[in-house]
Write a structure and sequence with these properties.
The protein is of the alpha/beta class. Helices cover 38% and strands 17% of the residues. The chain has a seven-stranded mixed beta sheet, sandwiched between helices. Helix 1 links the parallel strand 1 and strand 2. The radius of gyration is 17 Å and the shape is globular.
Length: 240
């Protein structure tokens, strides 16, 4: 039995030049009613944005005083992985999920992942874009690159994943904080997956929705990040 205290989901949002979508994603997040009266803690890490992201977030915080929203600022751009690591240090919730600052993922889907953490006591659960066939993908190179990274993950770590590079990775907070992360860029995904797998954990996946954006709309990941992801997986398979 869970104790009577309401649990809290900490939502880490690494942000870099996201003025076009940051307010919209925050509106989506605060409108979600989480299962079991789970509370929300929103941690935005502005990674040295050169646009108006941080001003928009500060204004949003001022206009929503009843919401638990916090802004942390990197004075210079350090990379998505570093932003996530900074966010992890500020987490006070029972569970953590990573949320991109764009609109590719649907915050309503938090309620699809939370049961695995709350009821089944999973330490980690991933949301898979590939388990809903209706989901579209922006570029064939990203689609096949994601499949390749996932296949390499499964071979190296004896997993049965369909979508290793997914953004929606959710964790028990204490467990995530115990993982010694070293990433600074997009390699957060393969590093945390490798290190979770080395604990002997079979990662559970849940189908989630996906609405991809284009490079012109601000998508930052590139095909070279897929090559780096494979290298990181190989590296952490044989080292700590």
């Amino acid at each position: 039995m869970e104790n009577s205290r309401n649990k809290t989901l900490s939502i880490i949002i690494p942000s870099y030049n996201e003025e076009r979508t940051i307010v919209q994603i925050l509106n989506k997040i605060i409108s979600v009613q989480l299962i079991e009266q789970t509370q929300k803690e929103i941690i935005i890490v502005d990674d040295g944005s050169k646009d108006s992201t941080k001003e928009l977030v500060n204004n949003y915080i001022s206009s929503h005083p009843n919401e638990s929203i916090y802004l942390i600022q990197h004075t210079v751009n350090q990379g998505k992985g570093m932003a996530i690591r900074t966010g992890i240090t500020k987490v006070s919730g029972d569970y953590v999920i990573i949320q991109d600052a764009d609109l590719e993922y649907e915050p309503e889907d938090y309620n699809l992942l939370l049961p695995e953490l709350i009821y089944n006591q999973k330490k980690v659960v991933y949301g898979s874009r590939f388990l809903i066939k209706e989901n579209k993908h922006s570029y064939q190179s990203f689609y096949y690159g994601g499949l390749l990274v996932t296949t390499v993950t499964n071979i190296l770590f004896n997993q049965h994943l369909t979508d290793e590079p997914t953004c929606y990775k959710a964790f028990n907070s204490e467990f995530l904080k115990s993982i010694p992360l070293k990433c600074t860029g997009f390699e957060f995904c393969p590093e945390v997956t490798a290190k979770v797998a080395k604990y002997g954990i079979k990662i559970k996946e849940i189908p989630i929705h996906y609405y991809p954006r284009s490079i012109n709309e601000g998508k930052k990941i590139r095909w070279t990040d897929g090559i780096e992801a494979i290298w990181i997986l190989i590296k952490y398979r044989f080292t700590d």
